[in-house]
Specification:
- The protein has 41 residues and is of the alpha+beta class.
- It has one domain (6-38).
- It contains one helix and two strands; from the N terminus they run E-H-E.
- The chain has one helix spanning 18-27, and strands at residues 6-12, 31-38.
- A two-stranded parallel ribbon has the order 1-2.
- Strand 1 (6-12), helix 1 (18-27) and strand 2 (31-38) form a beta-alpha-beta unit.
- The protein starts with 5 loop residues before the first strand and ends with a strand.
- The model has no long low-confidence stretch (mean pLDDT 94).
């Protein structure tokens, strides 16, 4: 479903961090173009 798609990831420090989302999307075949973990308050 995500094979060949480019994605930008915004993870949440108190939720799911960017690297965790990145690993899941890589396994689904997505190409990661940007990944970060931010603190939203």
């Amino acid at each position: 479903m995500l094979k060949g798609k480019k994605v930008a990831i915004l993870g949440d420090r108190d939720g799911i961090p960017g690297p965790a989302i990145e690993e899941c999307l890589k396994a689904a075949g997505a190409e990661i173009v940007f990944s970060t973990t931010e603190c939203f308050v």
